[in-house]
What we know:
The protein is an alpha+beta fold. It has 23 helices and 22 strands. It has three domains: about 190 residues, no CATH class; about 100 residues, PDZ domain (Pdz3 Domain), CATH 2.30.42.10; about 280 residues, 2-enoyl-CoA Hydratase, Chain A, domain 1 (Alpha-Beta Complex), CATH 3.90.226. It has a seven-stranded mixed beta sheet with strand order 20-17-16-13-12-11-22. Strands 4, 5, 6, 7, 8 and 9 form a six-stranded antiparallel beta sheet that branches. Strands 2, 14, 15, 18 and 19 form a five-stranded antiparallel beta sheet that branches.
Amino acid sequence: MRIIPSKFIALLFVLISSNVIAKPIAVDLKPEPYQKETSRWLVRLLEQLHYKPMKLNDEFSEKIFDNYLETLDPNKVYFYAKDIEGFQKYKNQVDDAIKSGDVELAFNIFTLYIKRIQERTNYALAVLEKGFDFTINEEYYWDREELQYIETEKELDDLWRKRVKNDYLNLKLAGKEENKIKDILSKRYKRIAKRVSESNNEDVFQYFINSYATLIEPHTSYLAPRTSENFKINMSLSLQGIGALLGTEDDHVTIKKVIKGGPAEKQGDLKRGDKIVAVGQGDAGTFIDVVGWRVDDVVEKIRGDKGTMVRLSVLGEDDLLGTKPHTILITRDKVKLEEQAAQHQILKVKSGNNEKKVGVINLPAFYLDFDAKARGEKDYRSTTRDVRKILNQFNSDGVEALIMDLRNNGGGSLIEARDLTGLFIDKGPVVQIKNSRGNISVDRDTDKSISWNKPVVILTNRASASASEIFAAALQDYGRAVVVGERSFGKGTVQSLIPLDSYASNNEHAMGQLKLTLSQFFRINGGSTQNRGVIPDIRFPERAGSDSYGESEYENALPWTSIKRSNYNMQGDLTREIPQLRKSYKERELLNPEFSFIKEDYEYYNDLKDDKTISLSEEVRKAETKKQEERKIARKQKREAIVEGELDPLITLVSVVYNSEDDAKEDEEDAKDDEDELENTKNNSEPDGDFVLKEAARIVADLVKLKHEKLVAKTHDKVENKL
Length: 723
């Protein structure tokens, strides 16, 4: 069995489509008059304002040409080699086409693309009717990204025969009956052809221009008029229903992010990178296959009234090709601001014969209610305000150390990243910002007050990005916190939306917007968070698939660089403590079975990730599936056998004294009287199953102990000197 590495895309195209099944239709695609002016303005803005401007010339033209073809046919399963050869005449014309706005070549390529998809659909349907012999041990090469385009129709037919055979076998192994399998796959293939055939002139222009824009830098993109008009509402709607952001990968709609505080995060089973195979309504409704659907069509199926249920049939990001999908049942709800706000808990960490009180603040985002603040409301919500209240409560409760849990925090308000840093330092610079002209500004904390002067650990993972990285880097540079966990995402750039209508010579047709990278963040020590991320002082083992996620995985991401160090005074000194903390952690890591599981999964993933083939023999696949099931069962049995009190004494006991979400649950329980549902809700920082948080608690408890020993030693030295 083979693992398909996760490949995240930089841009989510929001397209509108009907769910009605339709036959392939003839298309008449050609550039719109307004697109000529749009294209010209895009070139000017990208060349003059972008942080990393790139001259549009013949050399860049070839790259855009290749990127456009890769956007349309990334796995090389539609176009023939002769098609690509025929397109070569356009290779050095792309730059001139975009500059002039005469982009007809993009439409010519797309028109043939539609024809090829319709041909493949017809062939797939014909092969499906013939049936397959699953006793033959042949292999299907599922990842052709690095291979050449296929020369002949016979070769392409054979590839598609194997592709359809694999789709069929996947459903067969999942327990589907023959008639049902044929029905599902027939609808799937027709849907893919229909989806592409219904592409309009705006869609084609957006695909083509983004082959240019995203090639400059992955966070730069063009939003066509319809996309731009619905951008806000679609982003808002995607946060309703189950609380997840969706994207696409090949023919699958995937989970890009699980929103903190939302129904999916509370239910706990849906993970970033999961592929949605089918959607069912209610706790027993019929599943509808959604492979090949557009994102907005899948969102329509998932979205629904609060309190209703939706079932998702999903494949995990690191599941082997051919793995049987698992079902996740989620009760729809609306993500509330309160549920995304900072949550906190108090842990008790055993340390020798003593116990340490450790506070945890789980921060899902750097939020700020700009509208309420602008209206002058005194109680407007913000990250800094909420965290300050929690820290004051921790001080009152005698909490000795703090964990700032920034896992899966994708960022948010830069103002809040700065102000939150200010709660831990007296005053000084927090982040440096360099614009496209080379000018550098420094964002500073000017408030001398400190809300927390005790030990701090910051917990990060690969999904900690942007504002999270600014905050973590600042406290690391000031010597105020020990950063533990995984390397952060590495997004150190700033984007702005530029409405192109402002540049239009007439307003007869909207032109859309340009999302443009204008600036880059730099740490106060002069280094960047870009590409490299924030490197933890104590790194936990890498998880399977982590090498395919993060800014560094974009081929055209801005590189790491540095500028002059800002003028700041250290607020702490952890140079002696960090090596000792790392040593103690390493001793526990070797003894903690959960960390061993991570290492096993990582090695297993690496052993298989480069194999691009899969067997089409039912017997072989069943044997491989059985091995996977046995592996899962063995892992489950190992976990069930683990009793914390029976672990090595070095792995000290961590228990919950207080959890703010328990209060919210009790309030909700009183209101809904739904005890069973509440017992099944899960929190990312629930220590019972969160061994990463437990280890962070042990590290910060060790830090408290070392700080105390250091203080005692200093006091002793002073006494000795006086004597």
